[in-house]
Amino acid sequence: MSSLLKRASAPLLALMAACVLAQAVAGPAFAATITDVAGRTIELELPAKRVIIGEARQIHVIAALKGAHAFDTVVGWRDDLIKKDPDSYAAYIERFPDIARLPRFGYVPQGDFSLESAVALAPDVLTLNLEAAKTAKEDGFEEKAAAAGIKIVYLDFRLDPDKNTEKSIDLLGQIFGATERAEAFKAYRRAEIARVTDRLAAAKNLDRPKVFIERAPGITGDNHCCRTFGPVNFGKMVDLAGGQNIADGIIKTTFGDLSAEQLIVSDPDHVIVTGSNWAAESDLNQFVSVGRGADLTLAKAKLVDLMKRTPFPEVKAVKTGAVHAVWHQFYGAPYEFVPIQQFAKWFHPDLFADLDPEQTFREFHEKFLPVSYKTGYFVSLDRGVN
C-alpha cells in the first residue's frame, strides 16, 4: 500500500472505494479526442474515472446529467458553491452527505488553487471555466498539470453562452459518460426557451419595454450603481424575453458599467437586480438574497432599500414598482430558460398569462435533478404603490 493510502482517512478511503465501484458500473473507458471551448484538443480516456470540478457550480449541469450518480467520479471541487451559492450547497449536502468530505480548492486566477493537492488525488480531468484560461496558460499552470498527467478541459456557461453552452454540456456529457442525458437536457432547454421566443415571434406590434439589469449590487465595497450586462448572458435573456436591454450598444462586453446619467436618460420601464446568498463574502450585506428556499419577505425589503440609492428614485420603473430580483446563479448555469420565462411574464403579462416559470423549474428538478425543488428564485415589488 502506498504512503498516500496509509495516510488517508477512513472517510477518504470510503470515497475512493465508491469511485472504484462507480467505474465498474459505468463500464470500460475508451480512448477519445475532444476539443474544449478554448479550442484545445485533448486526448483522454472517456468516461473519466476521477474528476476535479474546477468550479463547483458546474454541479448544476453534472447533476442534471448524472442524477443520483452525480458525485460518483468527483474527487474534489472548488470552494465556490459553499461561498457563493450556499443554498444550493445545502440541497446537495442533504442529498449527498459524503460530499462534505470532498477536498476543496481555490480559484486558479487568484492563485490559490493548490496543484500539489490536486496531484495527490490522481485526477484524470480538471474542469475549469474559460475565464481561468489566460492565467492558467501564462502562469504555467496548464504545463504543470499536463506534466502531472492531469487533463484540463475548459467549459463556459458565462462569457459567451450562445457559443459555448451546448458545447460545454456535451463536454461534461462525455467526461461523465452521460451523452444521451446531455442530448435530453439540451432538448428540454431549447423547448422551454422556444415557449417564449416562438410566441414573441408570432405577436403583432410587439412593444419591447426598456430594461435595466444590475449585476450583483450590495455585496462589497461602495454600493453604487450601475454594473450591468452587455449583449450576452443576462442581457441576452432580457432580449429573448421580449425586452430591450438599455445597455445594448453601450456595453460591448459581458459586463460593464453605465453611468447614473445614462440610467436616468434611458428611464427604463423595468429594473432587475441579480442576487444570491452572499453572506459568506459580503461586507455590506445589502444584497438581495434570492435562491432555493429564500425568505422572500426579507428579499423584498432588501430590494426596497437598494432602490433608495442614487439615481433609482428618479427612474420610472421604481416609481411604478416594476422592480424585480432574479437569482444571480442563473448567469452561470444553463438553466436560463427559467429566467427567460419569468422575464417574459414581467415584460408581457397578458401575452404570457398562462406561463408558469416556477412550475417549469419544478418539473425540471423532477425530470433531471437529484435534489428537491424549493421556491425563492424571484421577487418583485408591488406595482403602482412605491
UniProtKB/TrEMBL annotation:
Name of the protein in question: ABC transporter substrate-binding protein
Keywords: Signal
Organism (species): Xaviernesmea oryzae
One Pfam match: Peripla_BP_2
Superkingdom assignment: Bacteria
SUPFAM superfamilies, per the entry: Helical backbone' metal receptor
Signal peptide: 1-31
Domain (Fe/B12 periplasmic-binding): residue spans on this chain: 50-355
Record InterPro entries: ABC_Transporter_SBP, ABC_transptr_periplasmic_BD
PANTHER family documented for this protein: MOLYBDATE-BINDING PROTEIN MOLA, VITAMIN B12-BINDING PROTEIN
